[in-house]
Amino acid sequence: MEIKKEHKNILLIGGAVLLVVLICTLSLFLVNNQPLDTTPTRFSIPDNETDSSVWGNFYPLQYESYLKNSENKDSKPHVDSFPYLTEMYKGTGYGAEFNEPRGHLYALDDILNVNSKRWESRQANCFVCKSPQIPDLMDKYDFSKLSFEDAKSEINQTIGCYNCHDTKTLDLKVKQKPLLEALDRMGVDINNATKQDMKSLVCAQCHVSYYFTDENQVKFPWDNGLTAEKILKYYDESNFAEMYHPDTKTPLVKPRHAEYEMFMGSTHQSAGLSCADCHMPYMRDGDTKYHSHYWSSPLQHINQSCLVCHTQGEDWVLNRVSVIQNNTKESQNRAGEAVVEAINAISKAQNTTGVNESILNEAREMHRKGQWYLDFVFVTNGYGFHNPGETMSNLNKAIDYSHKATILANKAILNADTE
Length: 419
Ligand code: HEC
Ligand code: HEC
Ligand code: HEC
Ligand code: HEC
Hints:
The protein is built from 19 helices and six strands.
């Protein structure tokens, strides 16, 4: 059969119309079934822009959640809950003031208003983890010689976007010198870090233990490894003492918020999680998914932070966390009592005429260890949650070494030269 010309045209037009309708339907279907938008347009931020509100103009969702950190404003002195700290930190800046942490937006205010005993000998270094302006200022000045007041006059921004992101690519970037130097000494090439590694390493710029060298440089004591035991060995190898307990003359070293160290080797880290997975989970705004920039207790957004994996449900998660944290606090208190007992025994021995000095020094060595292991757990936020097994192991050591210190101090008295 022959098809007439007009019929051919009608068929062609009809086909074309059908095709257009098909394409439209298909693209509508595809658009509606696309995964939520998780790769936002990357805007280029001006070079060296440390003002987070400027970044906020380009990334309003992240900025809005960042501003929420102002809600995280409560903080009380640790000593209110743990009175043994008074004895443990006697004579140090920590004895003068040591409060619970609060939101990143308060970091600069808090260092400016902290009891001056906390920074009197440490000058500009105290600002190192409080502002996005630090990495560039450390290129400009020698922080080991800069005064607190001189640094203060240059700094007006609290922790913000520039601390963790590259201005051009928005990729995560480690900028803090002490971390870059520590990784370098350990033979770790930061350029080989995976995206997942970076989601913890940006936090490791600050949430780590550090000390001031004799040359007044901020340094991470990681050369032997990241556990409390390996870090203490690092200090012992050079007979380093940060302070002497006024009642016992024990040469002490001071751990600090070792969240990253504790997390490394934990159940969750070995299962492939990063800090950001719990502390900065994905949130949803309409069709857009974005990372929360509200750094607080993940239990505030348990659905997004925990229940994505733990299908056992909210009650299970809350209960497990409280069991871990209560066990930690109980053992911490026992270790605290043991450390105070050791301090009292050594102090009594020291005041005994003719006391056996060599046994007394052994007692001081045990006090140094006992206090170290307790303090390591104490200053690490989360009350043991980040690594329950390692936390308990450290507290066992704290209790054991402290008891040994007490026994040795008593022995030093018994062996006093009474001639
Ligand atoms: C403490 C580190 C840190 C700070 C400070 C920080 N971010 Fe992020 N940001 C992250 C992490 C971690 C991710 C997730 C990266 C990934 O998934 O690879 C992220 C992701 C992002 C993304 C990608 C989209 C998304 O939500 O996943 C944007 C945009 C962003 N941040 C903007 C900002 C802005 C704006 C600020 C300042 C108001 C800021 N960030 C401050 C750590 C930080
Ligand atoms: C530039 C340094 C710096 C970086 C980077 C940083 N923090 Fe912090 N963070 C701090 C300081 C300092 C405080 C305490 C502020 C205060 O109390 O004034 C703090 C406090 C916190 C708190 C406690 C808030 C509370 O409720 O008590 C959490 C949680 C936290 N940070 C998580 C993170 C996570 C997760 C990362 C990485 C994604 C990170 N931080 C990166 C310096 C930093
Ligand atoms: C598996 C989830 C998870 C991971 C991963 C994780 N945390 Fe936590 N973090 C928690 C929980 C749960 C708490 C306890 C919160 C509470 O007591 O309300 C906590 C507490 C904290 C606190 C104290 C917050 C406060 O309100 O006092 C800080 C700071 C912190 N974590 C930092 C980090 C850093 C840095 C990393 C990575 C090195 C990390 N966390 C990895 C779940 C996690
Ligand atoms: C990406 C998946 C994932 C997320 C998110 C996650 N967990 Fe886990 N968690 C695991 C895995 C895997 C284990 C190992 C045991 C297992 O297989 O269940 C575990 C174990 C635990 C345990 C018992 C082990 C221990 O350390 O004693 C607790 C408690 C726990 N998680 C709490 C939490 C809390 C609280 C959060 C949220 C703040 C959280 N988890 C988020 C995967 C996850």
